[in-house]
Amino acid sequence: MRRRGTLFLVLVFCGLASWQYFTPHLALRSVQAAAEAGDAQRLNELVDFPALRLSLKDNVRSAVSHQVAGRAGSRVGALTGFAAGALAGPVVDRALTPSGIAALMQGTAPGGRGKPRGGNKDGEDDKPNRANLTIERGYAGPNRFEVRYVDRNSGAERLALIMHRDGLGWKLASVRLPGTGVEK
After folding, report:
1. Domain count within the chain
2. Is residue 181 part of a domain?
3. Which ranges of 38-126 does DSSP label H, i.e. alpha helix?
4. Given this model, what pLDDT does residue 58 score?
5. Range of the domain at 132
6. Does residue 27 lie in a domain region?
């Protein structure tokens, strides 16, 4: 009788460990399906929109400041940086739609019109560029799961989606764009 109890506890532990490991993968799949279907209500359940907005705004501002830093001392550069920083909010708000989330899930920055960052410039279909991406998924801590889109040729990260634990589930909560130095 004692052996059955031990076996039962081992099976429960294995089940819980499996559930713990696979829940962010399942949540990621749900976000992608809801985004592709344009299901805004389901996305509201799966995405922490305030945190994601803040993350994208920080990434855009950081990218602009890095570009403006190259023109340090230039009044035009300072004005450009100020204007771009002020416009980051409305642009990010318009990009965070179901189609924008679907673009993120494909490794493309939202508002990029289907082209991944650093993708082709000839207006060609995005599929050849998607084939050049490696998707790396993994835990970055007990409450953090990252999905990194890495260029196969250069090994450079194009985009990273970061999910955070929300109770027993997971929510897409932030993004990391290349060259911004923003880590949330």
Report:
1. 1
2. no
3. 40-46, 49-69, 75-95, 98-105
4. 81
5. 2-176
6. yes
